[in-house]
Design brief:
It is a single chain. The chain is an all-alpha fold. The protein is 70% helix and 0% strand. The chain has 6 helices and no strands. α2 packs antiparallel against α6 and α4 crosses α6.
């Protein structure tokens, strides 16, 4: 029996997350914690920050291309839409607060490097 179309994509995204976790565990965990604290999808299905590891890998892959908070908000929305569905991910506006906080965290991360 063959795997569903999304299976290979998800495996690749998880591998990207594992790479980022190995490269900079503290940064990776900070982003997981931020998503956990902000809960942008406004659901309580996530039991601990590491449950966001798959999404964080996808976000960190694209984050260096962002030039603004709006870019980060778009990335967050797109990542959650890809990992879940547009209906489950919610609207773009619910990612605004998380995007502002992630953008600030990203800028500070760049100063520390």
């Amino acid at each position: 029996m063959s795997q569903p179309d999304w299976y290979e994509w998800a495996q690749n995204e998880r591998a990207i997350g594992e790479y980022f976790l190995a490269e900079n565990p503290l940064w990776f965990k900070q982003v997981c914690q931020l998503l956990f604290d902000c809960n942008p999808m406004m659901i309580n299905l996530v039991a601990n920050p590491e449950d966001y590891a798959s999404e964080v890998g996808s976000i960190l892959r694209i984050l260096p291309q962002c030039q603004s908070v709006q870019d980060v908000q778009d990335v967050l929305y797109n990542v959650f839409t890809q990992w879940f569905s547009p209906e489950f991910a919610g609207g773009l506006s619910q990612y605004a607060d998380t995007a502002q906080k992630l953008w600030a965290l990203w800028l500070n991360q760049q100063l520390d490097d």
